[in-house]
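Bench notes, afternoon.
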Amino acid sequence: MPTFARQQPNSLLAKIQHQMAKMPKTAPEDSLLLRVLVQSMVVVGIIATDVAAETQMSLWAIPLSIAGSAWSWYHRRGHNIGAKFGLALAMLGALGYFVANLVGSLNDTRLVLAELLVQMQVIHTFDLPRRKDLGYSMTIGLILISVAGTLSQTLTFAPLLLLFLTIAIPVLFLDYRSRLDLSPLTISSPSEITKIGLPWRKLAQLLGIVLSIGLVIFALMPRFPGYQGSLPVSAPIKYERQKFDVRGINNPGYQRKGKGGGTGDLQIDGKGGNGNGDGMLDDTFYYGFNSQIDQNLRGAMKPKVVMRVRSQAPGFWRALAFDRYTGKGWEISCNDKTRKVRRPEWEYKFTLGYPPRNIKTKQIIQSYTALEDLPNIIPGMSAIGELYFPTSEIAMDLEGTLRSPIGLQPGLTYTVVSHVPYRDRELLDAASTKYPQDIIDHYLQIPDAIAPKLQTYTQNLVDRSSQQQVGKDSPALVSNYAKSLYLAQYLKQHYRLPADPMALDRIPDGEDLANWFLFRCEGKSTSCQTGGYADHFATTYTMMLRSIGIPARLVVGFDAGKFNPFTGFYEVSNTDAHALTEVYFPNYGWFAFDPIPGHPLTPPGADEDQTFGALQQIWNWVASWLPSPVTAWLAQVWSLTLGWLVVGLAWFFSLFSQGWLGIFSGSAIAITIAFCCWWGWQQFTSWKHRQWLRKLSPVERIYQQMLAKLTAAGFPKHPAQTPLEYARSIQTNCSVSISGLVIEISQAYTAWRYGAEAQRLDRLQELLITLKKVSNKLP
């Protein structure tokens, strides 16, 4: 009878099923501990992204991710074909959602990409049978924590980064065990977590080393100018274009008087001020952000961080400039000539341009993020060339200040590209004193009532300047730049800020602010308090300069703020807002001076690049604990070292922007430096080993030299082994000639060490030499 052959599959589906049945099953990853830790890495990455970007993906992503990991654990030995088809459809849906969001977020794609990664990871957690699949999850977790680092602006990210590293190190250890096909570590109960088999001490040491190296690299890492690629800017903001009044400045600290009040018809919000001099300052918003300001207001603001700025150099974040002095404050005389500026629809960049200057400039890129409601003024360093802003149009007045169609809302981000001029003392000293007519008309205006007395007083100060200076033979002030420096310093030294803001008397009705500031204590008792508020200094200084024919204007804005070396941002408070003075120099433009006591004479600018800002902050903290002479000497050494380091690093990194030849040269230099460092380290460790051997007794020295030779050959001695146990292990793995030498040296060492028996040093030395000669026979 014919034999019955196995029935072969006929249909296509049956053939596919038959082929799949013949496929070998993938070896699953059975280490539950590795799976839990990998999942923990991903969870930390998702939370870090949420914290940095202020999103809420964790609410759905973490529960689904945990559920997916549990499902993968229980189905790790199956093919799960139906589930894989479902996951493929889900990935296509995530891709479509990503493309839809990408169209509206071309200004900054980091968050959109992070959302896609989170979605893909959640889908991927339902299919994690192998160690390689867990490796994909580890990579996604690393990418998420990296994206969170680029988005984060606060120290909240630091604990999450530390937690991620704490989890990642044992994950790498367990992953390596899995690669070696070692049996997975298990735990019978939570109380036996310390008995799980992980080398806790070594892992803790490794974590400490990683953190130490990371902090050192962080401190030494230079902050180079600008960004690569697109510049940070918020998503487009919709607003009613027809309601954009280019003349209007919306300061939340002000409110209109009556209905439909004019642009300048304002009073202090909720503080009872009437604009006539008896009002109080708003304790949150700076009064100077308005088209006209009354400086006869009293009070103080409560400190609050309102803005973060990323910039490679500190600066005065300039907001508004005023040209017309009113006797009690300032106003913008040409506010009605403010014009609209539109950007192309396909990009976020406003190309504003800036007047050409016959002086060297430096490009400084600043990225601003509002944390509180702010006026619709757009702060930025002087000489703004490009602006990246989320509205389709802005306004710019004749003073070069920028206004937004809406107020700066919390979370709004924009970027300014400024071409800041260097403050070249020689050029500015030699600047001409012949001014254009429009400069004379706007920036030499001074009330007739105070002009003669103020001009006489200021000119006398300039004429007597040589008597006031330390050097008796100091030359008289000739240039307008030198006069500006001297008068600013004079106000700092001879007038003061009130200790109690409420103790300062208001300016009497009919009195001029500058006249009251300078002369109110003439002929009075010594108890009369000189000086005034910070902005009073700037106003008085501006009028003193005008009185002797130096064009000047008042500008308001924010100081740089406190630099946070851990985030790289300047944290700007509302109390950093104040006024200072800009002086005009023909062919070179406007330069700022600060006459306020306790402030630098000139605000920071292009000259004060903070490439190594984090390192500078660390040095400032260390220097505060050292005596002054030591600090001065170290500061000098530090300045020279840092200067050479900055020049060297700048030259090295510039090579990579000079084409293929530069890239090749830079790579060759980096390899050479790395080799020299490695060779130097080898020589140093060898020298330390020789120094250590010299301190040992002769027998101990010979024995340790033998161990070093065998260790280099791949036969290290375990700390738990006795000398004779180690010699027997060598006997098992090496030839008789070598093992015999090792046994004889080990026996002599044991007899000397534990039996206090004298040994023949010449014999031991001969054995060691013979061992070195035959070491090439070691397997």
